[in-house]
Write a structure and sequence with these properties.
The structure holds 2 protein chains of 2 kinds. By secondary structure, chain A is an all-beta fold. Helix content of chain A is about 0%, strand content about 55%. Chain A is built from no helices and 11 strands. In chain A, the strands form 2 sheets. In chain A, strands 2, 4, 5, 6, 9, 10 and 11 form a 7-stranded mixed sheet that branches. Chain A has a 4-stranded antiparallel sheet with strand order 1-3-8-7, with no helix packed on it. The radius of gyration of chain A is 14 Å and the shape is globular. Chain B contains no helices and 11 strands. In chain B, strands 2, 4, 5, 9, 10 and 11 form a 6-stranded mixed sheet that branches. A 5-stranded antiparallel sheet of chain B has the order 1-3-8-7-6, with no helix packed on it. Chain B is globular and about 45 Å long. Classes of the chains: A mainly beta, B mainly beta. Chains A and B meet through strand 4, strand 5, strand 9 and strand 10 of A and strand 4, strand 5, strand 9 and strand 10 of B.
Chain lengths: ~120, ~110
């Protein structure tokens, strides 16, 4: 049981280049999320998908797009990378528990540097 | 505006003593709170949670306290162990949103010295 997997683990981009971060989960979870972690800022939600076929903006969506390809996969695309997008990106998934609560499971992260 | 705040970036305690990590929130709609632990080069992992209908939840060495009137929660670790050294994030959610969205604090780095 792999849980949440992310590829790549590391990436260096030049300003203006594009790339897609891949995320997959094998826990049959309905909801998936993309976060970025920056020093002193904690984890900030970029986009989320509450269920297959839906996506919504989080706190910091500018400069990103997402695709919920199927129930397992949720990708994050940077169309034109900027140095401000240098960060560690985490994907997470969750299922609804008893009482309407959720518990998110995180992938290992992708460390992205934009020069 | 930061809806969930962890005002202490770091905390250092001796092994065997109590660690107390604090978290404040501003949104009165939050009704479910969680703590996550993160080691370097790994993703965060769930530690403990509390619903707004409770004021305390305990799991082994970890206890979370919630003071709704003060919009404050804290995580107590007793006794602290060197393996507890990590970054701790508190998070909050609104259960009725049915999205599972979490709003995280900035994190507190805990160092437990042997």
């Amino acid at each position: 049981n792999a849980g949440v997997t992310q590829t790549p683990k590391f990436q260096v981009l030049k300003t203006g280049q594009s790339m897609t971060l891949q995320c997959a989960q094998d826990m049959n979870h309905n909801s998936m999320y993309w976060y970025r972690q920056d020093p002193g800022m904690g984890l900030r939600l970029i986009y989320y998908s509450a269920s297959e076929g839906t996506t919504d903006k989080g706190e910091v969506p500018n400069g990103y797009n997402v695709s919920r390809l199927n129930k397992r996969e949720f990708s994050l695309r940077l169309e034109s990378a900027a140095p401000s997008q240098t960060s560690v990106y985490f994907c997470a998934s969750s299922a609804q528990l008893a009482g309407g609560t959720y518990e998110q499971y995180f992938g290992p992260g992708t460390r992205l540097t934009v020069t | 505006d930061q809806q969930v705040k962890q005002n202490s970036p770091s905390l250092s305690v001796q092994e065997g003593r109590i660690s107390i990590l604090n978290c404040d929130y501003t949104n009165s709609m939050f009704d479910y709170f969680l703590w996550y632990k993160k080691y370097p080069a790994e993703g965060p992992t769930f530690l403990i949670s509390i619903s707004s209908i409770k004021d305390k939840n305990e799991d082994g060495r970890f206890t979370v306290f919630l003071n709704k009137s003060a919009k404050h929660l804290s995580l107590h670790i007793v006794p602290s162990q060197p393996g507890d050294s990590a970054v701790y994030f508190c998070a909050a959610s609104v259960r009725s949103s049915n999205t599972g969205k979490l709003i995280f604090g900035q994190g507190t780095t805990l160092q437990v010295k042997p």
